[in-house]
Design a protein that fits this description.
The strands form 2 sheets. The protein has a 3-stranded antiparallel sheet with strand order 3-5-4, with helices on one face. By secondary structure, the protein is mainly alpha-helical. It is globular, with a radius of gyration of 20 Å. The longest helix is centred in the middle third of the chain and has 15 residues, at 191-205. Helix 2 runs antiparallel to helix 5 (107-120) and helix 8 (191-205) crosses helix 9. The chain has 10 helices and 5 strands, in the order H-H-H-H-H-H-H-E-H-E-E-H-E-H-E.
């Protein structure tokens, strides 16, 4: 995999402390609010939309950061005396999140329920009611994150929860493939990255060319992942090229040189990945020279048999992931 530039990544190394050791006191010691902006989608966007509603803004809660969400974010930023750019970065997140607790009933609780469902793989009703079940889920998350488990959601809990990685929905025309022996533990990624890829693979389902093989993404809390020089920040996801027999989930992985490689279908998939995350795909590494000449992918060593999708944001602690 492409190696992350180590220079300037001291902060990221602290932020993305090794996954696979949940509940340790230092798990997310420097967790950050993930910047979301036009073109993003997913649980964090949906949470932002509910938080904007809680703060008096009219915005649809559809999980897509479209023109309406940009306008609502700008209006909120103006009301709070923040820079009115429509980009929800750490400062805007911090102004959006209230302290909530048992007995509350509002749109901010809906934001909390969305985040808990996505980041902790729960099925809480998104009804805005801070019930006993929600309190218990909050306390469990706080213990998991190594922060005070009081069941009250204040700025620290919000920040840790927003930062925590998401797990893909394999009903989104995906199949789980783990070639490097990392298993399902390596399926986690940032909420926007997961949702943007899911949208692309749902769209690809309409072509009737089979499911998309989902390879390694990252561990639940980031950190070093065997077999990869990157995939540490939740913004990198590997997928398989499409086969002419549509057997990418059953017949094994191929390269772009293979007789069963379907360039036309793989091209469609790449186009759908880019369309599902406008302005948020930094690179797609895959060594098919035709797709490279078309400007759809880029060359990188050892990327003959898989596509490495690198997502990006307007603001990120590592310049590697800045759009």
């Amino acid at each position: 995999m492409p190696s992350l530039k180590r220079t300037g990544l001291a902060l990221l190394a602290v932020v993305l402390l090794i996954g696979g050791i949940p509940g340790t006191a230092q798990a997310y010691a420097n967790a950050f609010f993930p910047t979301q902006s036009s073109g993003n989608r997913g649980a964090d966007v949906l949470a932002i939309q509910y938080l904007l509603q809680h703060n008096g803004q009219s915005v649809p809660a559809d999980g897509v950061f479209g023109a309406g969400t940009v306008a609502a974010a700008k209006a909120f930023q103006t009301a709070k005396g923040l820079g009115s750019d429509g980009i929800v970065g750490p400062q805007t997140w911090g102004a959006l999140v209230p302290t909530i607790r048992s007995g509350d009933n509002n749109a901010a609780v809906k934001a909390l329920q969305v985040e808990l469902n996505a980041k902790r793989r729960l099925s809480l009703p998104v009804d805005g009611v801070f019930s006993t079940a929600v309190r218990d889920a909050v306390s469990a998350f706080q213990s998991h994150a190594g922060i005070g488990a009081d069941g009250i959601v204040g700025p620290i809990t919000w920040r840790n929860l927003a930062w925590h990685y998401d797990y893909p929905d394999f009903t989104a025309n995906l199949c789980d493939q783990d070639p490097d022996g990392n298993g399902t533990a390596a399926n986690w990624a940032a909420a926007a990255a997961v949702a943007q890829l899911e949208q692309a693979t749902r769209n690809f389902a309409g072509t009737s060319q089979g499911k998309v093989g989902y390879g390694d993404a990252g561990f639940e809390h980031g950190g070093d992942i065997p077999g990869h020089g990157s995939h540490e920040a939740g913004m990198d996801i590997d997928i398989w090229p499409i086969r002419t027999d549509n057997g990418q989930c059953t017949a094994g992985r191929i390269t772009w040189q293979s007789a069963t490689y379907d360039r036309a279908a793989t091209r469609q998939l790449v186009q759908m990945i880019r369309a599902a995350a406008p302005g948020h795909v930094k690179f797609i590494w895959f060594n098919d020279p035709t797709l490279i000449n078309e400007g759809l992918t880029a060359n990188w060593p050892a990327h003959d048999n898989h596509l490495h999708v690198r997502y990006c944001e307007k603001v990120h602690p590592s310049s590697t992931y800045v759009c």
